[in-house]
Every structure is written in C-alpha cells, then in structure tokens.
Recover the amino acids of this structure.
C-alpha cells in the first residue's frame, strides 16, 4: 500500500455517515422505545467506526516529506518525515515555527526544517509510532495524519 492509498482509505472511512441517524420525520414519528433502540444502534455503529478509523490511522504508510506531529503529552511539535530507515523506522525533522500568540497557543508552521533537530520513531506491534528508546506505554508518539504545533503555557 502506498501513502496515497493509505490516506484515501482513511478519508473513505471518515466520510462514512451513520446509517442509523434519525431523520426529523423518524424522530417525530418514533415512540421513545423505538428511539432508544435506534440510539443503541447508533452507538454500536460509532464504536465500530472509531475502531476502523484508528486501524486506518495506524496503517498510514509514511513517505519522505509527509507532515506529522510529535506528541509530548500536552505539547505538540510540528515535524516532517525526512528519512525512511526501514518500514518500521523513520526519522523526522522539526519544522520551524513562528509564535503568533504564546498564551493562545497560536503558531504558524513554516515549511523550513530546523537543522540538527531530528528524532527517530519506530512502529510498534500495536501500530503506534513511538520515539526510539522509549517504552510503548507513556511514550512520545508520532501522528502521521495531521500537523500541529502547540506548547502548553501552563507548564
């Protein structure tokens, strides 16, 4: 699977609509018992959909130049994939950012990369990308499906 195919699969899952959503006419005509039964179906479908979405996110295939986000607990760091070491090991470089408002967490992510600020991430058995040398639990994570930069001002 290529990177484009993996993102297309994720987009297809995210575009799915819940077939059990109530229309206005149904909501007005259903009894409370019928509404409760439909709500249970909605919840079950949403839970299954969330599992499929997570699997699609974990199945994203990285490529050089792919924007990503390093998640350090409450902080997030914008980065870009710069080297594919192996199918389960990649190197990312931090993007330069411009702080617009520190306390509002407003940053402008620039396309330039910081020199010397690279991190290596490995894909674990559970599908998550974790920083090399860290345990899977409570690790620094890498998100390949979006790019964001946020420094928590409360710390």
């Amino acid at each position: 699977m290529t990177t484009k195919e993996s993102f297309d699969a994720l987009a297809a899952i995210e575009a799915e609509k819940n077939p059990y959503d109530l229309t206005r006419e149904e909501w007005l005509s259903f009894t409370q018992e019928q509404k409760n039964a439909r709500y249970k179906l909605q919840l079950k479908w949403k839970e299954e959909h969330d599992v499929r979405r997570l699997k699609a996110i974990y199945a994203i295939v990285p490529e050089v130049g792919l924007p990503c986000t390093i998640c350090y607990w409450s902080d997030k760091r914008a980065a870009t994939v710069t080297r594919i070491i192996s199918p389960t090991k990649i190197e990312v470089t931090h993007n330069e950012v411009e702080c617009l408002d520190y306390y509002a967490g407003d940053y402008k992510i620039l396309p330039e990369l910081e020199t010397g600020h690279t991190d290596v991430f490995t894909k674990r058995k559970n599908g998550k990308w974790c920083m090399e040398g860290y345990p899977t639990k409570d690790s620094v994570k890498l998100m390949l499906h979006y790019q964001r930069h946020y420094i928590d001002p409360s710390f």
Observations:
- Residues 22 and 28 are 10 Å apart (CA to CA).
